[in-house]
Amino acid sequence: MRDTTERAHWRSLTPPGRVGAGGRAPEWLAETYWRSLVRTVAGTTRAEGAPLGPLRLRLGRRGPVLLAFGPAEVRRDGGGLVLRYPILGGLATRRPGGTLELVLRDDAAGVVVRGYAQRLAGRRGALRPVGVLYGVCQRGVHAVVTRGYLRRLQRELDAPAVGP
After folding, report:
1. Phi and psi, residue 118, nearest 5°
2. Where are the domains of the chain?
3. Which of 49, 91, 94, 124 yields a CA-CA distance of 20 to 30 A from 64?
């Protein structure tokens, strides 16, 4: 039985090489992602905490914490920027573990989830249909959120620079 989720979504950035990914501020990349997530799910989920973490995704205003993330590990490598958030827990997880990575390179941007143990997916027996349905829905929501973020990121990168 596969116990964890591995998922990646990428978008080529146009024109390649113009982004200057290595010079972007980690805070900007983080804020862009979390704002896009909240906007995409129409306010049903709220991000609490600093954009670089620790951070919690809460259902509604006072609902349960769906996912909790630790502080992002910020890494710059070869002209790119990677923010890696450890997944600490929450209602949507079976156990702590795994990471959410926001990646910005000169030619592409991506969101990578590694080692995330979904609470309901992968169930056996009578709960198997519930787990399958949950897995399909969760993948769909993740895909919609990620596509929205990558489109927003491209728009922000295309916007003319403001300032001196």
Report:
1. -70, 140
2. 5-156
3. 124
Q: Write the DSSP string, 92-122.
A: TBSSS--EEEEEE-SSEEEEEEEEE-BSSTT
Each residue of 39-53: pLDDT tens digit? Answer: 988 878 899 999 999
How many CA atoms lie less than 13 Å away from 112 in the CB half-sphere?
11
Q: How confident is the model at residue 143 (pLDDT cuts 50, 70, 90)?
A: confident
Q: Structure pTM?
A: 0.81
Q: What token pair was written down for 147?
A: 């596509």
**24: Cβ–Cβ under 8 A, 6 or more apart, which residues?**
81, 104
Among candidate residues 110, 105, 99, the one with its CA nearest the CA of residue 77: 105
Instruction: Report which DSSP code applies to 97.
Output: -
